[in-house]
Specification:
Blueprint lengths: L2 H46 L4 E5 L4 E2 L2 E2 L7 E2 L12 E8 L2 E8 L10 E7 L2 E5 L19 E4 L5 E6 L1 H56 L13 H64 L5 H15 L5 H12 L10 H4 L7 H8 L1 H9 L6 H9 L20 H15 L11 H9 L8 H17 L17
Antiparallel strand pairs: 1-6, 2-3, 4-5, 5-6, 7-8, 7-10, 9-10
Length: about 475
């Protein structure tokens, strides 16, 4: 509980206590006024109705040969000793038809119903009647009006005064104070206890957060984590700590298990990667062997497809192609681009001279045959696309589908361009290879029809950069049929 909250609670309690006192005082005052009014009316009714002992007196207030003129007067009297009455009485003298009538009201006939108040009937300062018999006949020394007492004058001229009894007031105030002080004391005790618990909780929470933060840091750095509980009297916090301790214990066990699993998984993955690498290497050797087998049958060399692959991947890198799937498609598409020639008859494939139109049409089917072979391998759709379309031209004049630039994949355009360059710079039995510069000059005449200008410029830039380092391809042959490179 904050100090401001405690202050508000205390203020409410004190306000409630003082309001209770005020209400008690108002209720006490109202009851006193009611009792006083009822008593005054009772006295007046006795006199008006002449209830009591009535005696007639002469004009000089004599009766039974006794002169009472020195003791009695018209109206309220202070003489208490009984005249006709055998006991003390209130005396009131009325004048009627030239005679005087003495009304004596025995004190025993007046009954005041409340034990909470002391009532007095006074005349000339002398107490004539009171429910406290000890003050009858004495002179009243209490002021007429005050905080706790009320005074009224009856119609008959007596003074009626009512005063709360001090012992009753003290008792009732003690009860009121008791019911006010007890909850106040309890609240002070509980508030102090709550404040102490709150301080303990704040201290413990701060320490707990520090421990958890340190543990989190250790977890991030991979250090051993062990939770050490803090001392606290706060029961909920103790339970929370037990839960945290159990959580970290389970976490530690899980981490240890995770580390073991991770190590096993890393070992397994390492083995799988080694196996995958070996498998890929064997697959590549098989594929390369297949390509070289076709090339040995075709041109007598097993390096053509490998060179096409190397330059194709170089150009792909120059073009900032980084997608592994696309790079693999270019790699294997370049190696297997002529695999379909295995289905071309030897008399056409190995013919030293130019091919006839009919023979060239058969030769062109090697792209379709190659696609049919490659498409048997699941997931090699991009490779099959390159194999089928590596003889397409960007103006749509190529084969087998006559696709234009907008329909050709970038991989197919790369392999097509590199295949022409390698073919122009390779030695063949029936012609001399062009130099790199001559091949680039000839290929530049094909830009816009066979090759894309931007793609060719990047390729030329790459070749020139390579030649500055070393001239790898310096004398190759040109293969043609009906003016076309196959």
């Amino acid at each position: 509980m904050k100090k401001s909250d405690a202050a508000v609670v205390f203020a409410i309690i004190f306000a409630t206590f003082f309001i209770s006192l005020a209400l008690y005082y108002i209720n006490l005052r109202n009851n006193a006024l009611k009792y006083l009014t009822d008593f005054s009316q009772l006295v007046d009714s006795y006199i008006e109705n002449e209830i009591g002992l009535v005696s007639d007196f002469s004009e000089d207030l004599r009766g039974d040969d006794t002169d009472y003129s020195g003791l009695l007067k018209v109206g309220p009297n202070t003489y208490l000793k009984g005249i006709k009455s055998k006991e003390l009485s209130i005396k009131y003298v009325l004048e009627k038809d030239g005679k005087y009538i003495l009304l004596e009201i025995p004190l025993s006939t007046l009954k005041f119903p409340s034990h909470q108040f002391t009532v007095k009937l006074i005349s000339n300062g002398k107490v004539l009647y009171s429910n406290d018999t000890s003050v009858i006949g004495t002179f009243d020394k209490v002021l007429n009006n005050g905080l706790l007492h009320q005074t009224q004058t009856t119609k008959s001229g007596f003074t009626a005064k009512i005063i709360p009894k001090s012992d009753v007031i003290l008792f009732e105030l003690s009860i009121t104070l008791f019911w006010g002080i007890v909850p106040l004391t309890a609240l002070v005790f509980l508030n102090r206890k709550y404040i102490n618990e709150e301080r303990d909780l704040e201290h413990s929470t701060s320490a707990l957060l520090s421990i958890i933060s340190d543990m989190a840091l250790r977890v991030e750095t991979g250090e051993h984590v062990e939770y050490r509980a803090i001392n606290t009297r706060h029961v909920p916090l103790v339970k929370i700590q037990q839960a945290i301790q159990d959580l970290f214990s389970r976490y530690t066990e899980a981490i240890e298990g995770y580390k073991l699993t991770t190590e096993e998984l890393e070992n397994t993955m390492s083995q799988i990667e080694e196996m995958q690498s070996a498998l890929e290497e064997r697959n590549f050797l098989l594929i390369n062997t297949l390509a070289e087998t076709v090339e040995l049958k075709d041109v007598g060399t097993g390096e053509h497809s490998k060179r096409v692959m190397q330059l194709s991947l170089g150009l792909a890198t120059k073009l900032n192609i980084v997608d592994p799937e696309e790079l693999n498609a270019i790699k294997y598409g370049a190696i297997l681009h002529d695999v379909g020639k295995i289905g071309i008859p030897d008399q056409i494939l190995l013919k030293p001279g130019k091919l006839s139109i009919e023979e060239f049409e058969i030769m062109k089917t090697h792209t379709i045959l190659g696609e049919r072979v490659v498409s048997q391998i699941p997931g090699w759709e991009l490779v099959a696309d390159i194999v089928r379309h590596h003889h397409e031209n960007i103006d749509g004049s190529g084969y087998p589908d006559g696709l234009s630039k907008e329909s050709l994949s970038l991989g197919a355009q790369i392999v097509a361009l590199v295949d022409v360059y390698i073919a122009l710079t390779e030695h063949r039995p029936y012609r001399i290879a062009l130099t790199s510069a001559e091949a680039l000059e000839l290929m530049e005449t094909m830009v816009g029809t066979k090759f894309d200008k931007e793609l060719f410029d990047k390729f030329k830039e790459m070749i020139l950069e390579r030649e500055k380092g070393q001239n790898t391809y310096n004398d190759f042959y040109l293969e043609s049929a009906e003016g076309g490179v196959v």
